[in-house]
Amino acid sequence: MPDWIAAGWKEYARRLPPHLPLSLIEVPVAGRSNAGRESRVEAERLLARVPDRARLVALHGAGKVWSTEQLAARLADWQQDGDPVCFVIGGADGLDPELLDRSQARWSFGPAVFPHMLIRVMVAEQLYRAWTILSGHPYHRA
User: Fold this and answer.
1) Which residues fall within 8 angstroms of residue 42, CB to CB, at 6 or more apart?
2) Which long-range contacts (CB under 8 A, 24 or more apart) does 7-11 make?
3) Cβ-contact 16, 129 below 8 angstroms
4) What does the pLDDT look like over 42-68, one tens digit per residue?
5) What pLDDT was estimated at residue 142?
6) pTM > 0.70: yes or no
């Protein structure tokens, strides 16, 4: 990953309070010899890292677009549930259909296409922004 991607993600993860830890787990990208089989391999690698009882949220272009306020409401609900939430970002070829089927939600940043590595920074920033809404912090001014 480029340094600026790592720095951006770390900055927003650092800003979140201790009761909302954000960690990044990366899995090796599968090869491209057989796209269908390789996406399943990636899905297996990703799912192997998902904790028990975790809510799975897939970042997907065909998912629902959430406003920041809607994300804040979801974050409040997730905090009440107490189960971990895993945001799954696919590689350049996207996420395997089986992994999408196993996710409890599909979140989209809209119809534009973004590099998958930039999405991790966007997710971290939006989670931080949602937390600031819930805590009354002045970061979010919309």
Assistant:
1) 27, 29, 30, 90, 91, 95, 96
2) 8/121, 8/124, 8/125, 9/120, 9/121, 9/124
3) no
4) 899 999 999 989 999 999 999 999 999
5) 65
6) yes
Tokens describing residue 39: 């996406």
For the domain spanning 3-135, the CATH number is: 3.40.1280.10
Per-residue pLDDT at 5 exceeds 70: yes
User: Of the candidates 66, 75, 65, 67, which has an alpha carbon nearest to the alpha carbon of residue 22?
Assistant: 75
d(CA 26, CA 44): 13
Q: Where are the domains of the chain?
A: 3-135
DSSP code, position 121: H
Q: 2 by DSSP, 3-state: which?
A: coil
Q: What is the pLDDT of residue 92?
A: 78
What pLDDT score was predicted for residue 33? 57
Residue 118 amino acid letter: L
